[in-house]
């Protein structure tokens, strides 16, 4: 079933020039692959036919706990805060910056929740910082390794944002997606997500240029915020690393069989993938034009 989904996606890649799918100066094909993969997995694996309509890519719901005590750290326009009473690693500059999402904290310890993939490497990395987006619904729960939080409204100060863009060659893409995958793509949905990616990317780029890490590490890049980090890292000259959360399997729409990937890779995808075995390395390298 996963192989069938890949076959449909690669049939689209063979039928159109995916390099011509550009929003402003960035190829939006990786975002389209995410949409296609979500729909095809719903149909072929979960057995829930979506009819090609929009598939949401949202995280779990969190209860609103109201205001949470937070304290600003460092320069005001950098937008960093910490939860009151916590002592995260802090400093304006670092060698590695880790980005974590609240849903990754699935392991519980007496001292707080543990994001087993991110935290396992973070706690072993000298001069590293861990960052999350500030959200009063999730900022307050205890973490074994406390995070810095990025308050977007403050971090946006002084940022020059990109003007709205358009999806070039969308009609050809839409026709190919219907022909080869029977998936209808919503241009308004894709345009909105690319706008979000560009917005977040400029804020994240500012953070990266100020904190100057050599590497940005996250687990699961394939959502608008993750892709924004990838774009920001590309613009800032920082190596981006997707820390895999387990064995991929031989076929995955966001990692394997990138048959027409450009030599420099996609700006919305990571530079490197941290794998947990040679089989996954082989699966990613197989049929990847940029491998």
List keywords for this structure.
single chain; 291 residues; alpha/beta; 8-stranded mixed sheet; two-stranded antiparallel ribbon; 8 helices; 12 strands; globular
Structure description:
Helices cover about 35% and strands about 15% of the residues. An eight-stranded mixed beta sheet has the order 3-4-9-8-5-10-11-12, sandwiched between helices. A two-stranded antiparallel ribbon has the order 1-2. Residues about 50-65 have low confidence and may be disordered. The protein has about 290 residues and is an alpha/beta fold. The two termini are about 25 Å apart. β10, α7 and β11 form a beta-alpha-beta unit.
Indicate the topology:
Elements: H1 2-15, E1 22-23, E2 26-27, H2 29-44, E3 70-73, E4 80-83, E5 96-99, E6 107-109, E7 112-114, H3 116-122, E8 128-133, E9 148-150, H4 152-155, H5 170-181, H6 187-211, E10 215-218, H7 224-236, E11 239-243, E12 272-274, H8 278-285
Parallel strand pairs: 5-8, 5-10, 8-9, 10-11, 11-12
Antiparallel strand pairs: 1-2, 3-4, 4-9, 6-7
Helix pairs in contact: 1-2, 1-5, 6-7
């Amino acid at each position: 079933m996963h192989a069938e989904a890949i076959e449909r996606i690669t049939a689209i890649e063979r039928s159109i020039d995916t390099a011509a799918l550009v929003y402003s100066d960035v190829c939006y094909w990786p975002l389209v692959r995410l949409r296609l993969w979500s729909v095809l997995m719903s149909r072929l694996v979960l057995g829930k036919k979506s009819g090609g309509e929009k598939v949401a890519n949202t995280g779990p719901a969190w209860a609103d706990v109201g205001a949470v005590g937070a304290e600003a750290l460092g320069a005001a326009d950098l937008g960093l805060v910490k939860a009151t009473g916590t002592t995260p690693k802090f400093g304006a500059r670092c060698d590695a910056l880790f980005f974590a999402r609240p849903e990754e904290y699935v392991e519980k310890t007496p001292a707080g929740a543990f994001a087993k993939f991110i935290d396992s490497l973070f706690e072993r990395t000298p001069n590293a910082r861990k960052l999350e987006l500030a959200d009063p619904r999730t900022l307050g729960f205890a973490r074994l390794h406390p995070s810095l939080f990025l308050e977007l409204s403050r971090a946006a100060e002084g940022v020059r944002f990109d003007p709205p863009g358009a999806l070039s060659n969308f009609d050809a893409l839409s026709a190919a997606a219907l022909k080869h995958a029977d998936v209808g793509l919503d241009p308004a949905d894709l345009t909105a997500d690319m706008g979000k990616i560009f917005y977040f990317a400029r804020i994240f780029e500012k953070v990266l240029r100020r904190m100057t890490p050599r590497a940005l590490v996250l687990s699961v890049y394939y959502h608008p915020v993750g892709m924004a980090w990838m774009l920001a890292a590309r613009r800032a000259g920082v190596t981006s690393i997707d820390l895999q959360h387990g064995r991929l399997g031989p076929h995955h729409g966001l990692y394997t069989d990138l048959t027409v990937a450009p030599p420099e890779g996609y700006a919305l995808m990571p530079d490197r993938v941290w794998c947990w075995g040679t089989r996954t390395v082989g699966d990613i390298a197989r049929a990847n034009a940029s491998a």
